[in-house]
Each structure stands twice: as structure tokens, then as C-alpha cells.
Amino acid sequence: MNGVSGRMGYRQHLVRSILAIRDQGGIELPDGTKVTVKPLLVGRSEAKLADLAAKHGIDDYTTDLDAALADPRWEIYADFLVTKARATALRKAIAAGKTIYTEKPTAESVDEALELAKLAAAAGVKTGVVHDKLYLPGLQKLKRLIDSGFFGRILSVRGEFGYWVFEGDWQPAQRPSWNYRAEDGGGIIVDMFPHWNYVLENLFGDVQTVYAQAAVHIADRWDERGEHYTATAEDAAYGIFELSGSQGPITAQINSSWTVRVNRDELVEFHVDGTHGSAVVGLFGAKIQPRNATPKPVWNPDLEDTHDYDADWQQVPTNDVFLNGFRQQWEEFLTSYVLDTPYEFDLLAGARGVQLAEAGLRSSREGRKVELPALSLD
After folding, report:
1. Residues 8, 103: contact at Cβ < 8 Å?
2. Would you call 196 helix, strand, or coil by DSSP?
């Protein structure tokens, strides 16, 4: 596990996924047997690794990635590094013949991401890319609504994501400063568009085109040492996506921002409208309004509208026990690895996410809609 001292690598992948799986005694397979996990921590700081290992009862850690990849005891290479360092490490893992599980974006360019996918395929290396938001309780409820035919023909999707990230002067910023430097792989498009790609393509349809407007709304920020720097990467992006839905084209609009104050139930919400009903879903919650319970508003700016529109929505019951999304995907990937079954969220899927981010940045630069050609390993 390379990069576990970082926020996501530590909280979600190490503590809430791998250690949770270890501490429950492993994952039960369909035949009743169990597969157990044993982590090796990899990083640059031996002191940090030693501290994490002692804190969590982990026997193995190293600062020598090459030695770890050469050791046959370690079957899977998991990457949670910053984006700029990821492709180099993934190449080493592929050359070593390791199974790969990695965060996204998988590379800094679509050409590099596709090259990694092809290298892994040629080497016969199984790969997995984190698609965590598909496993959120709210999006799993949305998937259930879609599969049931609740929406009829889906017409449009509107997404709102983000929150206010402090500039770092009078309150410390709650995101790393590299997120706001393009030269260090920062920017909300690179960070979030790969997420939007897999959410859209797995729930609604493949992304055909994108029009995006990126903005550096706040240029003056202060880093972890309290030193001023000028942001060079966008802190907000406003995107329109054309999708190829199974029943016809779908238009999606998603706003992503680290410069917005939250006035919604959750930090991310998707509003889906269809001919037979609509839904609003977030990280956990989901509410619906079917066609036969839709009110009939009439526009009249001369009279105050006293109708309680929020009351017209019905909460979707949970009806399931949802695991932490990162852990659930880890369990599915490990099961697929042990049973040697196909796994759809691979490096090619990751390359499509990089493609959308690259197309979004290009769209913003050129001020036009950009088409996304299909990617393949051929």
C-alpha cells in the first residue's frame, strides 16, 4: 500500500478498508472459505510508516518500493500517491507483474492513462481503479430506482458538488495546497471529472461531449506553512455533458466548486428528472416525486408562493445495510482477484475518466464543446 500517510490512503483505504477486512478475519467467498489480507506499508518517511505500523499492529513497512515489488510475498500493488507520482509507480508494478488497485486519476494525460491500460493488458496484469462514489448509499438507492424503471425515460441530470475551502490565512485550509497548483497536478477538473465520468457512464450513459467553464475564483491562498501563494489551478468548474442513454440522449449539468457555501442537504446532490418521476439523491439520502404526485405550479411573480415544495417529496427507504463504499469495492476487487473473474473498473475505465478531465480542460481553454471518442486497447 503506497501512499497510506495521505488523507485518503490512510482513512479510507488502510483503516476503513484493509484493516477492517483484516480485523473481521477476511472476506468470505461463495464456497464458504475466506481470503485474508496482510498489508505492507510503503512510503518516503520511515518515521511516519513506523508510527502507523505501531498504531495499527502492522508488521511490515518499507521505504524501498522496488524491493517491495520484487518480493513475491506481496501480490497486489495499491497506489494512493499524488497524481504526478502515480504513473511511474504503476509502470514499475506492471513490470513486476503485480495485480494493481489504484486511486484516480490514473495518469496526467489520456495518452499516458491509455498506455498504462495497454501495458497491463499485454502483461496479463489484473487492474482495478477506485470508483467509490458508485458505492455511496444514496447512489445505490438511485441505481435501484433506475433499475426498477421508476423514471420512465430519463431526460436530465443536475449535480451540485462542493463546499467552501478556506484560503488558509485566518483559518487553515481543509485541502492540501497542491490542489490549487496546476504544476503539481491540482485543479478541481482533474480531481472531480474522473468521478463524474464513472458516475454518469455507469448510471445513465456514456459521455459523448463536454462543455466546461473552469475558473480560479480565489487566486490568493496560503499553504500549510502559512506562506502566501498564487493559485494556478481552477477551484470551480461548470460542466455540461451529453450522454448516450439507453432510451435516448440525456443532458447532464454538474457544478464542482471549492468556493461555494453549502445550501443543500449534503455536500453532493444529483437531481434526476424523467418522464415518470424525479429523484434527488446525495451521499446517503434519496427522495422521489412520481408523476402522479407532482404538483402543478403556476408562475405568478405578483403573489407570494406559499406552497411547500419540499413536502411533495417522499424519502426512499434504505432497505439495505451499506458498507463503507471504499471497503465494499475493495472486497469486490479482492474477491474478483482470488476467483480470477473479470473486473469492469479497470485501468481502461480509469483512462476514460482521465479523458473526460482532459477534454474538460480543453473545452474551457478553447471555449467550445469537445467530443470524446471511444477508447479501446486495440
Report:
1. yes
2. helix
**DSSP state at residue 316:** P
**CB 236 within 8 Å of CB 162:** yes
Measured CA to CA, the distance from residue 125 to residue 76 in angstroms comes to 10
Identify any residues that bridge with 42 across adjacent strands, giving them in sequence order.
2, 62
Is the preceding omega at residue 105 within 30 degrees of 0, hence cis? yes
Alpha helices in 108-252 (DSSP H): 110-123, 137-148, 188-203
Check: CB of residue 159 under 8 Å from CB of residue 260: no
Cα separations in angstroms, 36 against 1, 29, 252, 335: 15, 11, 41, 11
Q: Read off the pLDDT of residues 320-367 as tens digits, 9 standing for 90 and up.
A: 889 899 999 999 999 999 999 999 999 999 999 999 999 999 999 999
| DSSP bridge pairs for 78 | 101
Whole-angstrom CA distances from 236 to 10, 180, 216, 349 are 26, 11, 7, 24
Tell me if residue 188 falls in helix, strand or coil. Answer: helix
Are 180 and 230 in contact by the 8 Å Cβ rule? The answer is no
Q: What letter does residue 156 receive in the DSSP assignment?
A: E
Cell of 172: 487553515
For the stretch 252-307, pLDDT in tens is 999 999 999 999 999 999 999 999 999 999 999 999 999 999 999 999 999 999 99
CB-based burial, 323-351: b 16+ in 10 Å, e otherwise:
bbbbbbbbbbbbbbbeeeeebebbbbbbb
> In one letter, which amino acid is 23?
D
Of 186, 161, 189, 160, the C-alpha closest to 175 is: 186
Nearest to 37 by CA among 47, 48, 49, 25: 25
